[in-house]
Amino acid sequence: MPIMIQNKIIKKQEGMINSEDRPAICKLILEDGTEFCGKSFGAEMPTAGEVVFNTGMVGYPESFTDPSYAGQILVLTYPLIGNYGIPLIKKEGGVRKYFESEKIHIKGLVVSEYSKKHNHWQAENSLGNWLKKNNIAAIEGIDTRALTKKLRTKGVMLGKIIAGNGDVEFYNPNNELLAKTVSTKKIVTYKAGKKSVALIDMGVKNNIIRSFLKRGVTVVRIPWDYDFCKIKSSGIFISNGPGDPKTCKITIDNIKKYLSKNKPTFGICFGNQLLALAAGGDTYKLKFGHRSQNQPCVESGTRRCYITSQNHGYAVNAKKLPAGWKEWFYNANDNTNEGIKHKTKPFMSVQFHPEAMPGPTDTDFLFDEFIKMLK
Fold it and tell me: How many CB atoms lie within 10 A of CB 314?
């Protein structure tokens, strides 16, 4: 009799368990054949992309909505993810306040342990439910440390998450012009002051727009392939974005034309790479990239080091900078380029993210330096 009562109690408890407590078995498969088995906590659907890792401890709502992650399956090395949920969706200054774009851009998510219970005064949803609502596959319960060591040793590689029914082919996002898929389709103006900047949207983060608006600078957001030489502005800004910069030939040609005007030009992340290519330099793919909120960057010619937020898989070849240009910053860990600057003209760019979101704001002052150039 006690056993029967106990079984009834168990059945009653099982009936109270929500869908997040009934995870489906799924697996991550890498292109070299390696398989990691785990449990699904996102959408029950297969997905494929480039598998990359981020060593940041917080900031997953901002990271997942960063357009620079388009086409990628993201591995988070911090062991517990989801404990503070997803914040309320609301707008500030014409863009979403707690997110870096209007949608999730990662193709899939890989974590060690998903926190089914979340607690934060701003949270309106759980991470798992948010991913399901947006059709993003996610897997937990695998050894992310072993996976990250593999990616660091062999380099980032293609992979796929198999969750639910069906399968999918491996997909290499770097073969596509990804900027076209994440850029604005029309010109959008955010009014704030007399000074204005033409923002070339290669997949811009919302906090870049906020950073200009809070300083009283009007932002004219334009598509990736628009001839911005036609726009009347005090200068141009080249945004962050996903994929291989060499696929953006139209943008590179437009930047070349604009540089002949000798007007203020500022680029961040993807913008650093595009500016280098337009100037006559070169870029290359990193082995496993920089994706974190703790990358140390040194200003060349000084001993000043800044802690920065980063998300990129390509870099500028500092040894191939053309005459008149110099390396502005370099990474203290691996000496890769973190910024370039013209020696006499108002052209500059950085590989890291001074706008943060997530991450430190040590280099936020760079927006002020650029705005001083605007007439």
Answer: 19
Among candidate residues 26, 248, 269, 297, the one labeled active-site is 269
Over residues 11-23, the pLDDT tens digits come to: 333 333 344 555 6
Q: Is 269 a catalytic residue?
A: yes
> Does 353 qualify as catalytic in the annotation?
yes
DSSP 353: B
Say whether 25 sits in a helix, a strand or coil. Answer: strand
Distance CA 245, CA 314 (A): 8
Instruction: Name the helix (H) or strand (E) containing 329.
Output: strand 325-331
Residue 62 catalytic? no
Domains and CATH numbers, the chain: 2-173 (3.50.30.20), 178-373 (3.40.50.880)
* In the chain, alpha helices (H): 2-16, 60-64, 127-133, 144-154, 178-182, 206-213, 249-259, 270-279, 365-373
Per-residue pLDDT at 12: 32
